[in-house]
Specification:
Strand order of the largest sheet: 4-5-1-6
Protein name: Stress-response A/B barrel domain-containing protein
Distance between the termini: 12 Å
InterPro entries: Dabb, Dimeric_a/b-barrel
Largest sheet: 4 strands, antiparallel
Shape: globular
Number of strands: 6
Radius of gyration: 14 Å
Structural class: alpha+beta
Oligomer: single chain
Organism: Petromyces alliaceus (Aspergillus alliaceus)
CATH topology: Alpha-Beta Plaits
Number of helices: 3
Strand content: 25-35%
CATH architecture: 2-Layer Sandwich
Helix content: 25-40%
């Protein structure tokens, strides 16, 4: 099975809020484990460049998982992801997530 690529976009109007979420992503990338081992293959995050095509989404994240099962674990059970959501929820207006199997 090919890796699962996950794109998450946040609408966070306040720059300080975006910075807090980015800091928590850094923590999550270092602490997310499954069965005691790191399971996220890669993560990248940053402020979105101002552009009308981004429809107001101000923070962009790309996460790569080895399998759909790993991504589902991330959504439902990962303690590091739960901590990230606790930081993001109070500062975000909206979130959009899409994922796909990389065929390249």
């Amino acid at each position: 099975m090919a890796p699962i690529e996950r794109i998450t976009l946040f609408k966070i109007p306040d720059e300080a809020g975006r910075d807090r979420v980015l800091e928590q992503y850094k923590v999550m990338a270092k602490t997310a484990t499954k069965n005691g081992k790191p399971y996220i293959l890669s993560a990248a995050a940053g402020h979105s460049f101002p552009d009308p095509r981004n429809k107001g989404y101000t923070l962009s994240v790309k996460t790569t998982f080895g399998s759909l099962e790993d991504m589902q674990y991330y959504d439902k059970e990962c303690e590091a992801h739960k901590a990230l959501k606790a930081v993001a929820k109070p500062v975000m207006e909206e979130v959009l997530t899409s994922y796909f199997e990389n065929v390249l």
